[in-house]
């Protein structure tokens, strides 16, 4: 069998050439990193859960008309996606203070923000993904003003969708990060949501108990990450309820 071509290997995923031009296969690894990859571990089952959860959220976005890269899931760890030109920004939406905004502004973790706040980091591991302003983005040409208007509108729509989906299962969406890519239809360019939406890229707190159900469990050694992600998947109906007792995630179709 011909070996498929690896396009990119990142910290959490691998991209392979897809079956048709303009497609890629996204493979979800079990690797977890935090603090700009200073902390690393392999967490059994994480890739399977994130593949399935990202499928769930991206399909939900498609259903409400928010363009994204997801085409279909291939197997436990892989999904077919549309290849796009990733804008080198992490687009972060915050509803409550946590992480860097809490530190920067001296806010208590969990303080509700006056409104959803969108911010950007420049995707550059060597620099530790520094926060950048719209002015930087425009000046360095990473995106145009029209792109930024579209990015904010996409990010806020994703925020409304995800906040509602999580609220319905007793989870507070504190913040999340998305990546946006460009695709070309002839001379026309469109922006789509790319990369992944999973507990790796969101802060999720149980509404009742405040328990953390996201990558902070790994960052701050708060317990078993796979159990936390399995709980998120179970509440969303992505895994059968029996899966709560087993170590390994079980897929349902
Ligand atoms: N639809 C897509 N088309 C092209 N590239 C994509 C698409 N979706 C995601 N990517 C890119 O694939 C890579 C996924 O790998 P991973 O998330 O492991 O990277 P990473 O180690 O976090 O590094 P990076 O800083 O580049 O995100 C990322 O670089 C992401 O920007
Ligand atoms: Mg990444």
Automatic annotation (TrEMBL):
Catalytically driven reaction(s): 5-amino-1-(5-phospho-D-ribosyl)imidazole-4-carboxylate + L-aspartate + ATP = (2S)-2-[5-amino-1-(5-phospho-beta-D-ribosyl)imidazole-4-carboxamido]succinate + ADP + phosphate + 2 H(+)
Pathway it works in: Purine metabolism; IMP biosynthesis via de novo pathway; 5-amino-1-(5-phospho-D-ribosyl)imidazole-4-carboxamide from 5-amino-1-(5-phospho-D-ribosyl)imidazole-4-carboxylate: step 1/2
GO molecular function: ATP binding; phosphoribosylaminoimidazolesuccinocarboxamide synthase activity
Record-linked PROSITE patterns: SAICAR_SYNTHETASE_1 (PS01057), SAICAR_SYNTHETASE_2 (PS01058)
Domain of life: Bacteria
Enzyme Commission number(s) from the entry: 6.3.2.6
The SAICAR synthetase/ADE2 N-terminal domain, residue ranges: 6-235
Keyword terms of this UniProt record: ATP-binding, Ligase, Nucleotide-binding, Purine biosynthesis
One Pfam family cited in the UniProt record for this chain: SAICAR_synt
GO CC, any one term: cytosol
GO biological process: 'de novo' IMP biosynthetic process; cobalamin biosynthetic process
Family the UniProt entry places it in: Belongs to the SAICAR synthetase family.
Xref: HAMAP family: SAICAR_synth
Protein name per UniProt: Phosphoribosylaminoimidazole-succinocarboxamide synthase
């Amino acid at each position: 069998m011909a070996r498929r071509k690896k396009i990119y290997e990142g910290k959490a995923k691998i991209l392979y050439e897809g079956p048709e031009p303009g497609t890629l296969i996204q493979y979800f690894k079990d690797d977890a990193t935090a603090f700009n990859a200073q902390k690393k571990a392999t967490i059994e089952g994480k890739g399977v859960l994130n593949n399935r959860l990202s499928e769930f959220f991206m399909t939900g976005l498609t259903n409400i008309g928010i363009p994204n890269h997801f085409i279909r899931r291939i197997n436990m760890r892989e999904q077919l996606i549309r290849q796009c030109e990733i804008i080198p920004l992490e687009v972060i939406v915050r509803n409550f203070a946590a992480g860097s905004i809490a530190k920067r502004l001296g806010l208590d973790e969990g303080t509700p923000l006056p409104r959803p706040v969108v911010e950007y980091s420049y995707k550059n591991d060597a620099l530790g993904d520094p926060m950048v302003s719209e002015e930087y983005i425009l000046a360095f040409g990473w995106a145009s003003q029209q792109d930024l208007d579209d990015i904010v509108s996409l990010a806020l729509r994703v925020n409304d969708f995800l906040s509602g989906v999580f609220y319905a299962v007793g989870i507070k969406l504190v913040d999340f990060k998305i990546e946006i890519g460009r695709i070309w239809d002839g001379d026309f360019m469109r922006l789509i949501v790319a990369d992944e939406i999973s507990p790796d890229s969101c802060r999720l707190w149980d509404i009742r108990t405040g328990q953390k159900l996201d990558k902070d469990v790994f960052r701050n050694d708060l317990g078993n990450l796979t159990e936390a992600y399995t709980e998120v998947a179970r509440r969303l109906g992505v895994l059968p309820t029996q899966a709560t007792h087993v170590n390994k995630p079980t897929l349902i179709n």
